[in-house]
Amino acid sequence: MKKKYIPPILSISAILGVFLIWSVLSYFNAVNPLFVPSPMKLWEAFTIILKEGYKGNPLILHILDSLFRLTAAFLLALVTAVPLGLLSGYSPSIRAIFEPFIEFYRPLPPLAYYTLLVLWLGIGDASKIALLYLGAFAPLYLSALSGVQKIPQHRIQAALSLGATKWRVFSHIIFPSSLPEIFTGIRTSLGFTYTTLVAAEMVAATSGLGWMVLDASKFLRSDIIIVGIFIMSILAISIDACVRLSEKKLLPWKGKE
Amino acid sequence: MKKKYIPPILSISAILGVFLIWSVLSYFNAVNPLFVPSPMKLWEAFTIILKEGYKGNPLILHILDSLFRLTAAFLLALVTAVPLGLLSGYSPSIRAIFEPFIEFYRPLPPLAYYTLLVLWLGIGDASKIALLYLGAFAPLYLSALSGVQKIPQHRIQAALSLGATKWRVFSHIIFPSSLPEIFTGIRTSLGFTYTTLVAAEMVAATSGLGWMVLDASKFLRSDIIIVGIFIMSILAISIDACVRLSEKKLLPWKGKE
Amino acid sequence: MPLNTYDNQQAGEAPFISLKDMQMEYQSGSKTLRVLENIDLDVNTGDFICVLGPSGCGKTSLLRIIAGYENATSGEVKIDGKKHKGPNADIGVVFQQANLFPWLSVEKNIEFGLKMKKLPKSERKRIIDHYINMVGLTEFSSLLPHELSGGMKQRAAIARSLATEPKVILMDEPFAALDSITRQSIQEQLRELWKQTNKTIFFITHDVDEAIFLANRIITINGSPGTVTLDIENPLANKIEEASDYRDLKGYNELRHLLINTLKNREAPLSQNLIKAKIAAAE
Amino acid sequence: MPLNTYDNQQAGEAPFISLKDMQMEYQSGSKTLRVLENIDLDVNTGDFICVLGPSGCGKTSLLRIIAGYENATSGEVKIDGKKHKGPNADIGVVFQQANLFPWLSVEKNIEFGLKMKKLPKSERKRIIDHYINMVGLTEFSSLLPHELSGGMKQRAAIARSLATEPKVILMDEPFAALDSITRQSIQEQLRELWKQTNKTIFFITHDVDEAIFLANRIITINGSPGTVTLDIENPLANKIEEASDYRDLKGYNELRHLLINTLKNREAPLSQNLIKAKIAAAE
Amino acid sequence: KPQSSEKPNEENANEDVPKEVRIGYQVIPNAELLAKQLGSVEKKFPNTKITWLEFDSGRDVNTAIASENIDLGLVGSVPLTTGIANNLPYQVYFIHDVIGDAESLVVREDTGIESIKDVAGKKIAVPFGSTAHFSLLTALNKAGIDPNQLSVLDMQPQDILAAWQRGDIDGAFVWHPTLGKILEDNGSVLLSAEKLAEEGVITSDTGVVQKKFADKYPSFIKEYISVLDESINLYREDPKKAAKTLAPALGLTEEQTLQQMEGLIWLDYSEQKASDYLGTNEETGQFANVLESTGQFLKDQAIIPSSPDLSTYQSAILHLK
Ligand SMILES: Nc1ncnc2c1ncn2[C@@H]1O[C@H](COP(=O)(O)OP(=O)(O)OP(=O)(O)O)[C@@H](O)[C@H]1O
Ligand SMILES: Nc1ncnc2c1ncn2[C@@H]1O[C@H](COP(=O)(O)OP(=O)(O)OP(=O)(O)O)[C@@H](O)[C@H]1O
Ligand SMILES: [Mg+2]
Ligand SMILES: [Mg+2]
Question: What CATH number is given for C3-90+208-282 in this structure?
Answer without folding.
Answer: 3.40.50
